[in-house]
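Input sequence (493 aa), recorded before submission:
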Amino acid sequence: MTATLTLPTFDGRAFINGQRVAARSGAVFDCISPVDGRVLTQVARGAEADIDAAVQAARTAFEDRRWAGKAPAVRKRILIKFAELVQAHGDELALTETLDMGKPVKYAKGVDVNSTANCIRWYGEAVDKVYDEIAPTPDTALALITREPVGVVGVIVPWNYPMIMAAWKIAPALAAGNSVVLKPSEKSPLTALKLAELALEAGIPPGVFNVVPGFGPEAGSPLALHMDVDCIAFTGSTRVGKQIHVMAGQSNLKRAWTELGGKSPNIVFADCPDLDRAVDAAVGSIFFNQGESCNAPSRLFVEASIKEAFLEKALAMVPNYQPANPLDKNTVMGALVDTTQLNTVMRYIESGKAEGAQLLAGGEAVHPVAGGCYVQPTIFDGVHNTMTIAREEIFGPVLSVLSFTDAADVVKQANSSIYGLQAAVWTRDINKAHGVARALRAGTVHVNQYDEDDITVPFGGFKQSGVGRDKSLHAFDKYTETKTTWIRLDSPL
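Predicted structure, token format:
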């Protein structure tokens, strides 16, 4: 971080009922930048009392219908204004995101800010275009099938894409007429707090969108256990996701929607139509966002006959992804979110070495900026599905390369995982592509590309990658109740 950089003024207080407030206890925690280790600000350390206050504000706002009672066209205009304000504050939000969690500022602006604004805008546009239904009943009855907001929605999001993950949940929840209490990760809470200010400025009434920062056991658990929260939406680790489902059942049987971990297989057949493009996608996707992506293609399966050529090209690209100062506009790989995550990644690298994988590139912590949390892009060859680095989600820039000889074998290997978030198949044979895609147990299967994306398609996984879907019109299913109103008609014409 350069000495001449002018930092934004960060307000770390919670946002409850339209106002910035300190934690009821007065407790705070340091918000530390992984870029260089400096303390950015102190953040309110929310706890059960703060969650109670936020939920009460959200419940009051929902019951008096200050938001839910607005016509869809009105909510649409306000959400579009919200999106416009996100875009207008893009430079500030991008810089905040970079300082808070370490991603390159070029991606914080070009990807995170733009995707956040687009998501909010899209759901605003959608809300007055989603119709209810009339059932095909006899002439003696009229059956209406309508969607109603579920009520108070609790949202818990991770630290890797703080704005985007928040938008994927709050945008459809707000568009449907719900009130929201958002608990951002304690590792990257600052942009969520700014989003709440912008939402209020856009015209979303006080109490409708509340943000309570804090730690999982102190703020996240009370939100998931709260008897007056109707729905909890969570993105994060599978371990915590399981706890969320338990807490939902222990409390009021609230709806629980979880998007969890991944260990996505990327399968390259010898008849891949463009080997250079496949290499570029494999390398770029695992090292993007420092590998801190649940859908990162961390298991690369390459057909044995082309593996040598593939790895030669991949290794030639590694120098392009060396970590550097995230505030430099040319940087493509920044800092890991904190020292805890850095140590976790390094433990997995040591595990790979100890279990017999061949380290081809990287594997070391580095210091392009003093005090920061950086690790080299790392590639292991000779990996087997039984190794820890092939089974567990690392959440860092570590690529495990495995080989295969036939389609049935690679499908079996790819599906041999507790996760099922995403996958990819590279082949010029349309029959093979379709057959393998159908056989893969994953929420999204890419063919001859990786991670091309759009707000119009659902995102989520099979197995222990979670339940429910973010994005697309399917997200409304999570934040609405389906009601049938059956009307008896005694005197049909």
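Checked by second reader. The chain has a mean pLDDT of 97.
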